[in-house]
Design brief:
With 182 residues, this protein is an alpha+beta fold. Helix content is 33%, strand content 36%.
């Protein structure tokens, strides 16, 4: 048995929920981070879906790779399956990621969006993303908090994503308009 690498690109970056030996900046080629999944559990409901990230085909994605000790690999995999595959919108896959600081390549567990799943939203118009994120609330909390935390953690990791910053600013503005006292 060997150590397990896990690639995080959204909430796994700032709330992994599992013990790990290392946390390293990483790059996954061939997939990009996108708000392409209707959330029916964590950040929304089937009646009022939120919007969460998926690893979608094309481009590249900067994130974080976690190294989990071999002795905890099976438990970590089970935990992640329960967390990430509540509605089976993600497909578990092992992909090669590059550890940015050393250029070393490792195989990492990734959860890639299933484009055939009914919760796959694809590339929604900007205003629709703002609308869904501003209103979404699910079992893991408010959808705007998820976006804000991701933006903040990307910035802390030195990852510039002007599109996500613009989206967060638009969601903040929508929330201010809905509740002027905020």
């Amino acid at each position: 048995m060997q150590d397990l690498w896990v690639f995080g690109y959204g909430s796994l970056m700032w709330r992994p929920g599992f013990e790990h030996e290392e946390r390293r900046p990483a790059l996954l080629r061939g997939y990009h981070r996108g708000f392409c999944v209707y959330s029916h559990v964590h950040r929304g409901t089937p009646e009022r879906p939120g919007l969460v990230f998926g690893l979608d085909a094309g481009g590249a994605c900067r994130g974080v790779a976690f190294r989990v000790a071999a002795s905890r690999a099976d438990d970590t995999r089970r935990y992640l399956q329960a967390r990430e595959q509540v509605t089976s919108v993600y497909v578990e896959a092992e992909k090669t990621v590059e550890l940015v600081d050393t250029k070393e390549r490792v195989r990492a567990l990734c959860f890639v969006v299933d484009r055939k799943h009914p919760q796959y939203a694809g590339a929604l118009p900007f205003e629709r993303q703002v609308e869904l994120i501003a209103a979404g609330v699910g079992s893991s909390g408010k959808n705007p908090d998820y976006l804000e935390s991701t933006v903040r953690h990307l910035e802390e990791a030195g990852i510039a994503d002007p599109d996500l910053i613009r989206l967060w600013q638009a969601v903040e503005e929508r929330l201010r308009q809905a509740s002027p006292s905020r």
